[in-house]
Design goal:
The protein has about 100 residues and is α+β, with helices and mostly antiparallel strands. It is about 55% helix and about 15% strand. The protein is built from five helices and two strands; from the N terminus they run αααααββ. The longest helix is centred in the middle third of the chain and has 17 residues, at about 55-70.
Length: about 100
């Protein structure tokens, strides 16, 4: 089981990172968060298509990475385990809300 940092440095992690750091995908994640949907839903199908299937630990690492990215944009997890739309890499993911006092 790779640590989060080892995952990010792996070939799989590099592929995931390319998606997560793409401006357009970040806009999609924030848009879903604003509408009360899991941001992971925005990138799940793209990750599956470009990187392939991930094991449960890798999916957790992606969730943590999404959390870190969205925190920089003024968002924090407010609940875990929300259902994600069918046909996605993830079946459940966190919902996000604005960090109090943050406007970005």
């Amino acid at each position: 089981m790779a640590s989060f940092e080892e995952f990010k440095a792996s070939k799989t992690g590099e592929g995931v990172g390319a998606i997560l750091f793409d401006h357009n995908w970040q806009v999609e994640m924030v848009c879903l968060a604003k509408h009360g949907l899991p941001p992971a839903q925005a990138v799940g199908a793209e990750i599956a298509a470009k990187v392939g299937a991930l094991d449960d630990t890798e999916k957790q690492h992606v969730g943590r990475w999404i959390r870190d990215i969205l925190a920089e944009k003024g968002w924090k997890p407010v609940t875990k385990g929300a259902r994600v739309a069918p046909g996605n890499l993830f079946s459940r993911a966190a919902l996000y809300g604005r960090i109090e006092g943050e406007v970005r």
